Amino acid sequence: MLIAGVECGGTTFKVSIAGYDKVSKKLDRLETTIIDTTTPPETINKVVEWLQQKQEEHKKGDPIVSIGIASFGPVDLDKSSPTYGYITTTPKPNWHYADVVGGIKKAFPEVPIAFDTDVNAPAVAELASGHHGNVKSLAYITAGTGIGVGLSLDLRPVHGMMHPEGGHIPVPLAPQDVKDGFTQGTCPYHGCCLEGLANGIAIAKRKNISFGDIKNLEDADPVWDTVAHYYAVLCTNLFLIGSVEVIVLGGGIFQRKILYEKVRNATVKLLNGYVSKVSADTIKGQIKDSEFGADAGIMGAFYIAINNINKD
Ligand SMILES: [Zn+2]
């Protein structure tokens, strides 16, 4: 059967179709396109046109049977809400209360559409792919200019009031930041929340360099210990509150591979033996790289679409 995935990003939309075999559970990705994010009607029209064209080319008698959409947020995931399927209070021009699901539903009225955040959906995909073994609860973190935290507990993405916004948790200042007087975070809402202290902008600000020059910092730069402290605080909270079995760290900041070891060590230190299942011996299998890398969003979209099929 043919399924579609749509990853809505602030700069581009990634749209892809795949064949899915319900029996073998094999996903065979067929084609992908990238569409610039302009206005909502123009962008969504291009998504729809591409999907319709691909459906014609690939269907062999079968139409698209399920569509998954993984979107930047905040989004409305409450099916009883009049703005379900919308991107809501984003500062992104034109996208404030943009109806994403509705625009695609209009073109594919018979097709079930699964909708989630661009971090919840990858959390679902990382779990469903089996890459991390037989685990049922996982957090997916992406860190760049923003910090997104997706949570899937007992194989279900966490929605609740809306969806987790773990990038904005309050965090204790790193000792080095206290010493240096770096106590003004970059978050316009909270100043020193996790995002305000550990996103790319905060790293650049500490070093007095441009965002683009972060990649030129040396691995030995002590700033990485400071950065690791903040992600370790997040991981510690995720273990304690979500009782997650695996935490996947991805996004631009985690291109810096030395961070994984630093975050693992700092997390073990913060937990200090309190959670017996998290120790220096186990942590490598609990704080990990993404299986899908840059494809995490689109794979997330596919896997929530698959969940919709398997629900039937
Ligand atoms: Zn914040």
From TrEMBL:
Name the UniProt record assigns to this protein: fructokinase
Reaction it catalyzes: D-fructose + ATP = D-fructose 6-phosphate + ADP + H(+)
Enzyme Commission numbers on file: 2.7.1.4
InterPro entries per UniProt: ATPase_NBD, Carb_Metab_Reg_Kinase/Isom, ROK
Keywords of the record: ATP-binding, Carbohydrate metabolism, Kinase, Magnesium, Metal-binding, Nucleotide-binding, Transferase, Zinc
Record's keyword annotation contains ATP-binding: yes
Domain of life according to the entry: Eukaryota
Cofactor requirements of the protein: Mg(2+)
CDD domains in the cross-refs: ASKHA_NBD_ROK_BsFRK-like
Family the UniProt entry places it in: Belongs to the ROK (NagC/XylR) family.
GO molecular function (one): metal ion binding
Keyword set includes Metal-binding: yes
